[in-house]
Specification:
The protein is of the alpha/beta class. It is built from 8 helices and 6 strands; from the N terminus they run E-H-H-E-H-H-E-H-E-H-H-E-E-H. Helix 2 packs parallel to helix 3 and helix 3 packs parallel to helix 5. Bound molecules: farnesyl diphosphate. Farnesyl diphosphate (FPP) binds next to helix 1, helix 2, strand 2 and helix 3.
Length: about 240
């Protein structure tokens, strides 16, 4: 089996990593961005085509204002200061999520990142920002219902493939492997539709400590899996 085409990551454990060092949570997120940059670079080097990361969920707004603010600042910083480097590395950015309800400044930053990287095709980096899997499915259902009302489809023409065209991930193949760091064993509303047949890899390693060696371990584990998609091995 070859390497996965599409890897998705729940980058969990930044807060605990900072706490272990008696540092503010912000520091953990800052180190988390460094970790992300390492993995982005590695994906380009080893030929992973799509990387989707969970940067900010629809539920993360419930965190203390100070932490939300610091996460927003980090996003802004990364998408402005590091954009040239991402472009030089052939990275194309796409934001997955409800960008219409974030501040105009954040909307502009997201739009600029997508626009300035639009000619790249070495690595597609999807950043789930203000993202929730259920919200995405409801959003798609509404858009599809509206398309039916306008006569673009009949109800009977709605298939899984048609539905997938209304998700934020339109045009991308489903993730082959979903990695979750930080020791929790749950999906946390991430890629609920797209992850239907993904292989999961869980590690206790906190995200800022997740290095290339760990990443390669996850890929090696994926390569040992037998993917049957509901079928059986010998028919
Ligand atoms: C989970 O750790 C992590 C997040 C909610 C944010 C992850 C975001 C980044 C690494 C920055 C993303 C930036 C860009 C530019 C994409 P946690 O805070 O829940 O950790 P804990 O479980 O230890 O408290």
């Amino acid at each position: 089996m070859t390497i996965p085409n599409h890897i998705a990551i729940i980058m969990d454990g930044n807060g605990r990593w900072a706490k272990e060092r008696r540092m503010p949570r912000y520091y953990g997120h800052q180190e988390g961005v460094k970790s992300l940059k390492r993995i982005v670079k590695c994906c380009g080097d080893i030929g992973i085509k799509v990387l989707t990361v969970y940067a900010f969920s629809t539920e993360n707004w419930k965190r203390p204002v100070r932490e939300v603010k610091s996460l927003m600042q980090l996003m802004e910083q990364t998408f402005s200061d590091d954009l040239d480097e991402l472009i030089a590395n052939g990275v194309r950015i796409k934001i997955l999520g409800d960008v219409t309800s974030v501040s105009p400044r954040q909307q502009r930053i997201c739009q600029t990142a997508e626009e300035r990287t639009r000619h790249n095709d070495r690595l597609f980096l999807n950043v789930a920002f203000n993202y929730g899997g259920r919200m995405e499915i409801v959003h798609a259902a509404r858009a599809l219902a509206s398309a039916v009302r306008q006569g673009q489809f009949t109800v009977d023409e709605i298939t899984e493939d048609v539905f997938a065209q209304y998700l934020f991930t339109k045009g991308f193949a489903d993730p082959d492997l979903i990695i979750r760091t930080g020791g929790e064993l749950r999906a946390s509303n991430f890629l609920l539709w797209q992850g239907a047949y993904a292989e999961w890899y869980f590690t206790d390693t906190l995200w800022p400590d997740f290095d290339i060696e760990e990443f390669e371990k996850a890929i090696a584990s994926f390569r040992q899996r037998e993917r049957r998609y509901g079928s059986i091995k010998d028919k």
